[in-house]
Amino acid sequence: MTAAYRRLFRGFFRPYQGTGVLLCLLAVVALVPDPAYVAPILAGTGVLFIFFSPALLLHRLVTNAWRYGGGIPSSWEISEDGLRCADERGESLIRWTAVTRVEWLPDQLLLWLGAGRMIAVPLVGLSAEQRDELMGFIQERGLFSGRPTLAASNDQSSSEGGSDR
């Protein structure tokens, strides 16, 4: 799930990183006058914004997603009509006409619905034959962004190591 949220919110992290860059530039400007203690403080704060703010924000997003329903077991059914998800709370159907593109991440598919909405579909329980069939099904609809091949996605998932929640 972390990889899915990282992909979804990568544009939202830019202002935090931009703030860090701005603080680092202010640190360079602060080196010119005499108060030398201001520059290290600004530089340190800038580095914190560049590297740690996006990581902290991502951690909080994923934690909240798990807290509010991420751990509920669900079943997925892919058909000509669309993607049907069912869990103990209810059932939903996303029609293929609503899906703008599909990205293949290790052990999950990201179905983009436009306007920053995305659904992460786990692939952990699928065999290689089922993944082949699923890829062909989605490629027929022209939804893959980048058109991955099965060999490339299997190599990517095996090289990633552990699973991302």
Description:
With 165 residues, the protein is α+β, with helices and mostly antiparallel strands. It has helices spanning 2-8, 14-30, 38-70, 128-140, 150-159, and strands spanning 74-78, 82-87, 90-95, 101-105, 108-114, 117-122. The strands form two sheets. Strands 1-2-3 form a three-stranded antiparallel β-sheet, with no helix packed on it.
From the N-terminal CA to the C-terminal CA, the straight-line distance is 4 Å
The percent of residues in helical segments reads 40-55%
What profile does the largest beta sheet have? 3 strands, antiparallel
The stretches of 5 or more residues where confidence is low (pLDDT under 50) are 149-165
Structure class: alpha+beta
Helix/strand order: HHHEEEEEEHH
Strand content: 15-25%
> Strand arrangement, largest sheet?
1-2-3
The total count of strands amounts to 6
Output mean pLDDT: 76
Per DSSP, the total helix count is: 5
Q: How big is the Rg?
A: 21 Å
Shape from CA axes?
elongated
Itemize the secondary structure elements and their pairings.
Blueprint (H helix, E strand, L loop, with lengths): L1 H7 L5 H17 L7 H33 L3 E5 L3 E6 L2 E6 L5 E5 L2 E7 L2 E6 L5 H13 L9 H10 L6
Antiparallel strand pairs: 1-2, 2-3, 4-5, 5-6
